[in-house]
Design goal:
- 49% of the residues lie in helices and 12% in strands.
- It is of the alpha+beta class.
- β2 and β3 form a beta hairpin.
- The chain has 2 domains: 102 residues, 2-Layer Sandwich (Phosphorylase Kinase, domain 1); 313 residues, Aminoglycoside phosphotransferase (APH), C-terminal lobe (Aminoglycoside 3'-phosphotransferase, Chain: A, domain 2, Alpha-Beta Complex), CATH 3.90.1200.10.
- The longest helix has 32 residues.
- The chain is built from 16 helices and 14 strands.
- The structure holds adenosine-5'-diphosphate (ADP), 5-S-methyl-5-thio-alpha-D-ribofuranose and magnesium ion (2 copies).
- The site of 5-S-methyl-5-thio-alpha-D-ribofuranose has 10 residues, from α7.
């Protein structure tokens, strides 16, 4: 880590930094005399500034050497900014429609300058709390996940290229270690920063710590998270890492990026949608019972997986009067398109009939489905009994109502984690989720 030249910025000192940095000044049209600068970081780790001039805009994100949520008693490598900047660039090259542009990166300052994802974009989690529907979300996220995961796996790359990427991102180990601790370990033991909606969920949290079957399953997932360099992951793909309007979906904040199991990203997205589903009863009021909205969330979960995985579909899917544009972007379509390329995993002379290839794809996607369900439910559990909770539940003021929503989510997640291999389709998962309502 480069110590020299680092200083934490604030709204005042950022002005001088921008004036001395041509790549940033240019994005503001050179109009630097009346900048509006506001710190808006509402995430757990970093500081984020929106910078506006009358001729342009940008966002500055700076990592300080600790976790913002806890303070300087929990040190954390500033190199996370380097991994975030390079992941944004790599993901944008693969999926430009859904990843913001990086304008500037300063490694010594752990500072990224990037596109300001302008209003009416908001953080997806906030939209889910407000009950807003995003008709293109499933399609956009399937596109993002299919491209970023497929093109960074051995289905597309040679072993030599793959291992180069693995080696580069192995150094993001402090961030992976944080995930190992707060997702896969702390919820299953007494830990300093664990919390739950007490006293209502005290017994539920204790039951998690005493559940042998759950602990055996989480151990498997933890090992897979650490050992399996299947693809280049975002690493923190929850609903606060996605900014949306009804027409646009932008994925931010890949500071946990590393080569890991694909199901960790897919599960993060689906699991956080399931959390949003269970929180809805806490947001229902006389004006809106949220019943229709809950159906939309379930449909979005189902579509996201189906759009992503659609194995066996080799003609354009009819979607009412529309033709599904995912024909060319979903995971297995990418696989079919690139089956004769450099990918090391399924060499064409071996997987030499369409029937065999289809069997291989079905096996791969089934296993990815079960991994995604496992990781998704682990991500749900940690948000209810671990350190970092989610606004979906935290914004329910009545603690007993909040606990009731959280308990249903927790029980649903525990059952999915234990029984994930029994699910054959996302439709069955949806029925299972509804059974906890
Ligand atoms: P952290 O790593 O601390 O979680 P995030 O990258 O999630 O930080 O950013 C925190 C907040 O800053 C986001 O919730 C969002 O409101 C805002 N933000 C971050 N990046 C952008 C951007 N490029 N455009 C607009 N707002 C952004
Ligand atoms: C201290 S845990 C903070 C959490 O916030 C990040 O967004 C990650 O999800 C991390 O686990
Ligand atoms: Mg964030
Ligand atoms: Mg972050």
């Amino acid at each position: 880590q480069q110590q020299q030249g680092f200083r934490p910025l604030d709204e005042a000192s950022l002005v001088a930094y921008i004036k001395a940095t041509p790549a940033l000044a240019a994005r503001l049209g050179g109009r630097l005399d009346a900048l509006t600068i506001k710190e808006v970081g509402d995430g757990n780790l970093n500081f984020v500034y929106i910078v506006l001039s009358d001729a342009g805009s940008l966002v500055i994100k700076q990592a300080l050497p600790y976790i913002r949520l806890v303070g300087d008693s929990w040190p954390m490598s500033r190199e996370r900014a380097y991994f975030e900047a390079s992941a944004l660039q790599k993901h944008r090259a693969l999926c430009p429609d859904h990843v913001p542009e990086v304008y500037h990166f300063d490694r010594a300052m752990s500072l990224i300058g990037m596109r300001y994802i302008e209003p009416p974009h908001i953080i997806l989690r906030k939209g889910l709390v407000a009950g807003v529907e995003y008709p293109l979300l499933a399609e956009h996220m399937a596109d993002y996940m299919a491209k970023t995961l497929f093109f960074t796996s051995l289905l597309y790359n040679s072993t030599t290229d793959h291992k180069k990427g693995v080696a580069q991102y192995c150094d993001n180990v402090e961030m992976s270690r944080l995930t190992e601790q707060v997702v896969f370990s702390d919820p299953y033991r007494v830990a300093k920063y664990n919390r739950c909606t007490s006293p209502f969920l005290d017994n539920d949290a204790a039951a998690v710590r005493e559940d042998a079957e759950l602990k055996l399953e989480i151990a498997e997932l933890k090992s897979m998270f650490i050992e399996r360099a299947q693809a280049f992951l975002h690493g923190d793909l929850h609903t606060s890492s996605i900014m949306v309007t009804p027409d646009s979906t932008q994925v931010i904040d890949p500071e946990f990026a590393f080569y890991g199991p694909m199901g960790y990203d897919i599960g993060a997205f689906l699991g956080n949608l399931i959390l949003a589903y269970f929180s809805q009863d806490g947001h229902a009021d006389q004006a809106n019972d949220r019943k229709a909205y809950k159906k939309w969330i379930l449909k979005t979960i189902e579509d996201s997986w189906n759009f992503l995985s659609n194995y066996g579909i080799n003609t354009k899917m009819g979607m009412g009067k529309h033709t599904c544009p995912l024909y060319t972007t979903a995971f297995v379509e990418l696989w079919n398109k690139h089956k004769d390329g450099n990918g090391e995993a399924y060499l064409p002379p071996i997987y030499n009939s369409s029937e065999l290839l289809r069997l291989a794809q079905k096996k791969y996607m089934t296993s990815l489905f079960h991994d995604s369900l496992g990781f998704g439910s682990a991500k749900m559990i940690r948000r209810i009994v671990g350190i970092a909770h989610v606004e979906d539940f935290e914004s329910i003021e009545d603690a007993s109502k909040r606990a009731s929503c959280e308990r249903r989510a927790l029980n649903c997640a525990k059952a999915i984690l234990k029984g994930r291999r029994q699910f054959e389709s996302i439709g069955q998962v949806i029925v299972h989720v509804q059974s906890f309502d």
